[in-house]
TrEMBL record:
InterPro entries with a match to the protein in the record: ClpA/B, P-loop_NTPase, TOR1A_C, Torsin, Torsin_1/2
Domain Torsin-1A C-terminal as annotated: residue spans: 278-333
Main location group: membrane
GO terms under cellular component: endoplasmic reticulum lumen; nuclear envelope
SUPFAM superfamilies: P-loop containing nucleoside triphosphate hydrolases
Highest taxon of the lineage: Eukaryota
A single GO molecular function term of this UniProt record: kinesin binding
Upper lineage: Eukaryota, Metazoa, Chordata, Craniata, Vertebrata
UniProt protein name: Torsin
Length: 347
């Protein structure tokens, strides 16, 4: 549909070449030739998609080495999340006909990189990332705040997902604050996640659904702390060290709001992705990355100051950051003012 738009150029060209074509047959031929060449060129996806965002063609695979490089370079201290996501995405994108959409459930404390990883992954599928019209981010408290309107939300959400996936099969849907989402709204997503060939003529099997929640974050933190206390390396924490804990604490805990829904019962979640609490060395990496992104030279004095301003738990040992890297940007803004102020004063 989108590719027919450049045909509008044909009449436009005639307007631009007034008179010329009316007289000489040769010119007419020439003008038509030019017009059709131009139309063909403009409507060619390689050209067209430079200016208008296009949905990736069927069969277009994700570049796994690019995703790995992005995660290696940008996501700090999350070896488990990195491994699980790479494995999941590889399996999904190498499979020419997946049986169901890819469904990842990201768990962990605030500020540990759940949104950040979702964004990196989304950028690999749709280069515009969160700005892409094929990437959709929903926040429980923003999009579905009122519990008495669940019925409306359900309908709206289903229409959106249907419309979006019809427009682009590889749409990405990110649901933040899953633990604050009403079970009724979660259930509205369920039919799309299941092993159906098609629902009403639309196939959802190329789509990616990502759920983010803090559910289980306290259990993951406790496991990480136990590891630290027994002198073991963080990098040696394995998925199997966390899974039993979480399956009891979150997945089989009927009191953990999120899991009232039947998504768990039906085993629709493909991968459970744990995010570990971040240590001060990771916070420092975040500060350095943020400074570099803002185009400053990295100043280790400021890095240390910002890292020191964060609060850590347990209170005595100060091992893990309370808010992960979440407040790094805001804290750096304040330091930036100081730095800029100094420069101004001196200059
Ligand atoms: N593990 C991490 N590696 C690199 N940056 C991180 C990490 N965790 C958080 N950040 C930084 O902190 C910001 C907030 O993190 P976010 O992903 O929103 O946390 P969450 O979604 O887990 O609450 C991110 O935009 C990113 O800049
Ligand atoms: C994948 O990404 C890597 C690194 O970004 C790049 O060098 C390579 O050319 C890409 N491969 C394809 C097939 O696009
Ligand atoms: C065609 C269609 O239904 N598009 C919807 C995609 O999702 C967004 C929300 O992220 C809706 O606003 C669009 O209407």
């Amino acid at each position: 549909m989108a590719r027919s738009v450049p045909l509008l150029w044909v009449p436009l060209l005639w307007v631009l070449l007034p008179g010329l074509a009316a007289l000489e047959p040769l010119s007419v031929g020439l003008a038509i030739g030019v017009a059709s060449a131009l139309t063909g060129y403009l409507s060619h996806p390689r050209f067209y998609c430079n200016y208008v965002e296009c949905c990736p063609r069927a069969g277009q695979r994700l570049n796994a080495s690019a995703l790995k490089a992005q995660l290696d370079n940008r996501l700090f201290g999350q070896h488990l999340a990195k491994d699980v996501v790479l494995k999941a995405v590889l399996g999904f994108s190498n499979n020419p006909s997946p049986k169901k959409p890819l469904m990842l459930s990201l768990h962990g404390w605030a500020g540990t990189g759940k949104n950040f990883l979702s964004q990196i992954l989304a950028e690999q599928v749709h280069p515009a990332g969160l700005r892409s019209k094929f990437v959709h981010l929903f926040l429980a408290t923003l999009h579905f705040p009122h519990h008495d309107q669940v019925k409306l939300y359900k309908e709206q959400l289903q229409n959106w997902i249907r419309g979006n996936v019809s427009a682009c099969p590889s749409s990405v849907f990110i649901f933040d604050e899953m633990d604050k989402m009403h079970p009724g709204v979660i259930d509205a997503i369920k039919p799309f996640l299941d092993y159906y060939e098609e629902v009403d003529g639309v196939s959802y099997r190329k789509a990616i659904f990502i759920f983010l929640s803090n559910a289980g974050g306290d259990l993951i933190n406790k496991a990480a702390l136990d590891f630290w206390a027994s002198g073991k390396r963080r990098e040696d924490i394995q998925l199997k060290d966390l899974e039993p804990l979480l399956s009891v604490g979150v997945f089989n805990n009927k009191n953990s709001g999120l899991w009232h829904s039947s998504i768990i019962d039906r085993n629709l979640i493909d991968y459970f992705v744990p995010f570990l609490p971040l240590e001060q060395r990771h916070v420092k990496m975040c500060v350095r990355a943020e400074m570099a992104a803002r185009g400053y030279a990295v100043d280790e004095k400021i890095v240390q100051e910002v890292a020191d301003e964060m609060t850590y738990f347990p209170k005595e040992e100060r091992i893990f950051s309370d808010k992960g890297c979440k407040t790094v940007q805001a804290k750096l803004d304040i330091h930036e003012d100081v730095v800029m102020g100094d420069t101004k004063a001196r200059g």
